[in-house]
Design brief:
4 helices, alpha+beta, two-stranded antiparallel ribbon
Length: 192
């Protein structure tokens, strides 16, 4: 059997493809492990859950503690750069505050507190493709919001090949960000 050699793209080449129109603005793609991968369409349940969850994170407050907005930025469907070969666009990224709002670069792993993917048709991909990618980059906290079952898959303790710990929490549970254990998130509030 003949083995085909695959040409991997790096982030700079990927950006040049966008700048020159080889990849158009209308194409929903992301760079994953050197490959330009089409992103799934955003169905209404996916879009509504992304909006609901991101709004909840942006307005989270529990006196006397600081609001999440005082200690982190909440980015929605914007790129992050995990490596020279991966620039995915997670549905929600909770990242370090940057005074210039990341005008010079996309958040890197050391600037990321939490990544969230919303899954209505992509649960398998988010578990089997995104989880190892994020773990390999050292992302300490990764959640998947399962729109269909109204539950959250929680991945933590990253290793090179995947996450050491995985939990599935139901809608009535509460959850904390690893970076901010004092912040209690009510899972029911993440879903419309």
């Amino acid at each position: 059997m003949t083995q085909t050699k695959v040409r991997l793209w790096n982030v700079d080449e990927y950006h040049r493809m966008l700048e020159t129109g080889i990849i158009t603005e209308d194409e929903r793609v992301e760079l994953i492990n050197g490959q330009v991968i089409p992103m799934s369409a955003k169905n209404p349940p996916h879009a509504a859950t992304t909006l609901c969850a991101s709004d909840y994170f942006k307005r989270w407050r529990s006196p006397p503690q600081a609001s999440l907005a005082e200690v982190a930025l909440v980015r929605v469907q914007d790129p992050i750069q995990l490596s020279q070969y991966s620039e995915p666009e997670p549905d929600i990224a909770v990242v370090r505050i940057d005074a210039r709002k990341y005008i010079n670069h996309h958040p890197a792993p050391n600037e990321i507190f939490l990544l969230i993917e919303v899954a209505d048709t992509t649960l398998d991909t988010d578990c089997k493709q995104k989880a190892p990618l994020y773990a390999n980059a050292g992302i300490a906290d990764y959640w998947i919001l399962d729109v269909n079952q109204r539950q959250v898959f929680v991945f933590c303790e990253p290793l090179l090949e995947g996450y050491n710990q995985q939990l599935i929490l139901q809608e009535d549970a509460t959850l904390s960000l690893i970076a901010f254990p004092e912040i209690k998130i009510h899972i029911s509030q993440l879903f419309p």
